[in-house]
Amino acid sequence: MLHRYISQIPCHRKSERSFHSLQKYIPLCSRCTGILLGFLLFPIYFLISPTFILVLALSFFAQVPLLIDGFTQKWKWRSSTNTLRVSTGFLSGNGMALLISSSISWIIS
Fold first, then answer.
1. d(C-alpha 93, C-alpha 18), whole Å
2. What is the dihedral of CA 62, 65, 66, 69, to 10 degrees?
């Protein structure tokens, strides 16, 4: 059942960039896994209330490592690892969750 929901997420699903658990392929790349894990902090961000300018800055800068990792890998300047992919994905997911939760709080108030 979980596999059906995961298969709906847009992802390239390359085996060499995905995690394997107990010799089974997890059909989601490590970067997308990190982004989804970062979204888990979404409810926590409703408890804090930083200024919207700070939220924009933090959310923007949280995307920079993912962009650097992704583009330097795409341009074949270096090779990335699954650990780095999941870390930059997690940071990016945190930034997106912060922006979304702050936007919702701002709209509601």
1. 17
2. 180
